[in-house]
């Protein structure tokens, strides 16, 4: 009996065995009725059997083995995604989803081997086709599941960030009221200032979370461009950072025409994040330099620091969100939320303005972030 014939003739017994495994070994499945567990398993196995029987050339097999042909079995793909959606809504973990497929595969292979008398190349070919079909189902199911998990997480972060704004605003207003009120002792004033610093940091975290959520949901950062001088915008930001860090040397150099149209607040955020990153990772006894140069239709902004270089493998994910360890309070610099989102947001601000960002880092030359911005964002008419 061929493997596809065995699946078709034993499908109910295979599904029963698989459902029993799920009820016994998967905590989430214990709360479900048998029909809720069996819903897609029988249909999935029938599609697998059909896929095994379908003609397949050597080139098609090669592409499928690499996961490059998800459309070659649309019924199988659709069923795997529907199963992932059902399991997601039922509260299955990713490990439980994988365990279901592993048990289903094992049940089929064991039954087939039990009735085999001899094995030949055709037997091996069928087993390969079966494993490829199951692997495709797993891949499609997990891809759908992971996408939904990430989307749910991003929505949760967005809601959390939005809902935190009101209590933070109330706390900030209360601190301001206390600071302008007569009668505080020196110790009380210091305590209120520390509260203000914490509120500012939390507000920065909320802003970073909202920016992160917006971009992760497929939306670009909102811009409000206006005519401005980029040198003046950067100088104001650097002056603010100097005031917070009188022990650090911040240098700035400007040349060329620096006029254009940008979202001034966003550019200030970009510069603040880059300089904060340079101060955090650069040697404290060396300066951080900010240089701007206007040439033709674009302006280049460079932020440089001396210190340990960024490893080449780390540079590949440097601008990805949440890829760097959370910054401890003692190491955090002004302008950074400490969430590991600073460079990600810098990249998103650059992209929203139609620009780009690059990094070069070595032991000899230090680390330089270079942002290139057109004089007008893409959505701004010339």
Automatic annotation (TrEMBL):
Any one GO MF annotation of this record: phosphorelay sensor kinase activity
A Pfam family matched in the record: RsbRD_N
UniProt-listed CDD domains: HATPase, HisKA
Top class in the EC scheme: transferase
Name recorded for this polypeptide: histidine kinase
EC number: 2.7.13.3
Reactions mediated catalytically: ATP + protein L-histidine = ADP + protein N-phospho-L-histidine
Domain Histidine kinase: 159-377
PROSITE patterns: HIS_KIN
InterPro entries cross-referenced by the UniProt entry: HATPase_C_sf, HATPase_dom, His_kinase_dom, HisK_dim/P_dom, HisK_dim/P_sf, RsbRD_N_dom, Sig_transdc_His_kin-like_C
Ranges for region Disordered: 53-75, 361-382
Gene3D superfamilies xrefs: 1.10.287.130, Histidine kinase-like ATPase, C-terminal domain
The organism of origin for this protein: Caldimonas brevitalea
Entry keywords, A to Z: Kinase, Phosphoprotein, Transferase
